[in-house]
Structure prediction request, 321 residues.
Amino acid sequence: MSVQAISWALEQQIVTDASARHVLVALANHADNTGRDAYPSVNLLCRYTGLKRRTVLDKLKLLQDIGVVVRGNQRIAEAKIKRADRRPVVYDIRIDLGVDSFSVTDEKENGHRDAGSAPRRKSRDADAAPRFDDGVQMTAERGADSAPKPSLTKNTHTHMDWPCDSPREKYQLDYDWKPNLDMFYESCLRRNMTEIVSPSPEELANFVGHYSEMDRCLTDRGWNDLLARWCSENRKGEAKKKRAKSSSCGKSYSSSAEENKSGSNRAMSKFQASEDYKDELPRAELAEHLGRRRADLIAKRYGSDKVGAPAVEEMRRTLRT
Prediction:
């Protein structure tokens, strides 16, 4: 808890949204004297403010957009909270913003108050009495040195001015993230994926869009290794779909080939039957077996004195009956 951070959050006029100011005060309750290293959970901020979780997240984003709150050193939460899925985000409050305006206002108010008040007559005892604003120790013996006054200079340089580029630094993925191709290729080699040199634009867009919405922090090597696994699983799935599609096409082709074969066999059997009955019978022989009237009907149907396989087939059916 920092009185300086809470006082600044209450007096600042940069944030005018009421809910955002409430979230800022709750966040300052966990910061140090310089406004840094505040990492309360979202659920705790909801309990402080009485707001919904979605509203608290929106107000935190608003505070970051304004510039009052920035992301701090995430290693502090990492050192105290081992589980990454339960680790909150560390924020730093820019309490150096608006300091000049507050000091000028306070000086004007003090000037008006001193001008309106009458000067007080000091006696010898009053001059000898110690005052709190003189920096005199109340319990010190006579001749003791006065307590040092606190410094009025503000240290405006924080650790956010020099972003950490260490590959071991864990961070959350955003939409502007680009993979390190060397680390990505090493991850592919460890997975025996020598054919994958770089991720395709579609794979990279799907990967970034999926993990940027998650509160997950990894190192640079961890993100590149996860991208290699993403590409491997994606391409294995596509290859499996292609094999299933080709096998279904092969089955349909084989079934159609079998149907064509059976149809050709039936046609060949019919052709052989027609070849067996290729020899034509004269009309007189047909009339002798079937009768004159029926032979005339058959000859009229087929339009010739000689009839072929249909007439012979009909003749055989008649003889069987």
User: Anything to note?
Assistant: The chain has 13 helices and four strands. Residues 101-137, 153-165, 275-279 have pLDDT under 50 and may be disordered.
